Amino acid sequence: MRTRTRTRIAVAGALAALSALALTGCDSGDQADAAAGAPAPASASASSSGSTAGSPEAPSKASSGGSSSGNASSGGSSSGGSSSGGNSSGGGATAACTTQNTSAQFRQSANHASESQAATGSLRITNSSGAACTLVGPTVVTVTDDAKRGGSASADNSEEGSDAVDIPAGGTATADVMYTDVNTEGTARLSCRTESSSVKVALPKDAGTTVNVMKADGSPGGVFSLCADSFKLGAFSVR
After folding, report:
1. pTM of the model
2. C-alpha distances in angstroms, 165 versus 15, 156, 202, 215?
3. Helix 2-37 crosses helix 39-54 at what angle (to 10 degrees)?
4. Which residue from 224, 142, 149, 143 is spatially nearest to 193, judged by alpha carbons?
5. What is the spatial distance between Cα 133 and Cα 225, in angstroms, rounded to a whole number?
6. What does the pLDDT read at residue 110?
7. What is the pLDDT of residues 93-136, one digit of tens each?
8. Quick check: 130 and 198 in contact, CB under 8 A?
9. Within 10 Å of residue 214's Cβ, how many Cβ atoms?
């Protein structure tokens, strides 16, 4: 009996020792696992830290992309400026009216001059091109006697008015021509010192062109009879 009791005690003691050893091993394993797992939070922290450190780069790149976009936008604005320049080229400035894109007509007065009123003829500049042109500066009209008796005179509209006038395609700008077609004795205009069937018209900064004098209604066969030493050319207007 004693032998069995001792044997049981020995077995129980061995089992207790084995249990304690197993528990110690488990604790050691847990501690080892804990020790092995300890760097994990640090790694996670480092990873988190890396993400945090990396996150500013993304906005920086986005910002950089924004700048690039801004430059593109800026380039677009520049392109818009070019377009504006194109718009300036198409509708802002017009070509000058010259003998190349216009035709001139000189009409005599429908009525003789009186003591209180001059005879009033007209100079008409018609835009014969397909685009508007600008008439600016003094226009000069010169008349010379057909018989070469020495009678001649010139006039320009620098004093009467030579501001810029835009003549639309197919439009006409007209200036009055005021003169005396009777002499001091009141005789007929045929006795004037200058009798001309044509006049020379020089547009601003352009070569002159000679045109025939028309009658007041625009039909051919007119005569510019100037019984004085001078005449006046008025301002142009589109009419």
Report:
1. 0.60
2. 124, 16, 16, 26
3. 10
4. 149
5. 32
6. 97
7. 689 999 999 999 999 999 999 888 999 999 999 999 999 999 99
8. no
9. 18
Give the angle 209-214-215 at the CA atoms, nearest 5°.
160
Six token digits for residue 57? 């780069």
Give whole-number Cα distances, 137 to 18, 102, 165, in Å.
Answer: 124, 16, 10
Amino acid letter at 187?
A: T
Among 25-29, 222-226, 227-231, the minimum mean pLDDT is found in 25-29
Token pair recorded at residue 87: 């718009």
User: Contact 174/65 with Cβ under 8 angstroms?
Assistant: no
> CA 213, 167, 178, 163 torsion: positive or negative?
negative
Both structure tokens of 37: 């797992």
The whole-chain average pLDDT of the chain stands at: 73
C-alpha 76/C-alpha 88 separation (Å) is: 18
Long-range contacts of 202-205 (CB under 8 A, 24+ apart): 202/139, 202/140, 202/141, 202/142, 203/97, 203/98, 203/99, 203/102, 203/104, 203/125, 203/135, 203/139, 204/96, 204/97, 204/135, 204/136, 204/137, 204/138, 204/139, 204/162, 205/96, 205/137
Q: Between β-strands 140-144 and 152-156, what pairing exists: parallel, antiparallel or unpaired? A: antiparallel
Single-letter code of the amino acid located at 43? S
- The amino acid occupying position 213 is V
What tokens were used for 218?
């625009």
Query: Tokens at residue 140, please?
Result: 């000069």
Which one-letter amino acid corresponds to residue 135?
Answer: L
Q: What is the rounded CA–CA span in Å between residue 160 and residue 140?
A: 12
Q: How many helices (H) and strands (E) does the chain have?
A: 3, 14
Q: CA-to-CA distance for 221 and 179, rounded, in angstroms?
A: 19
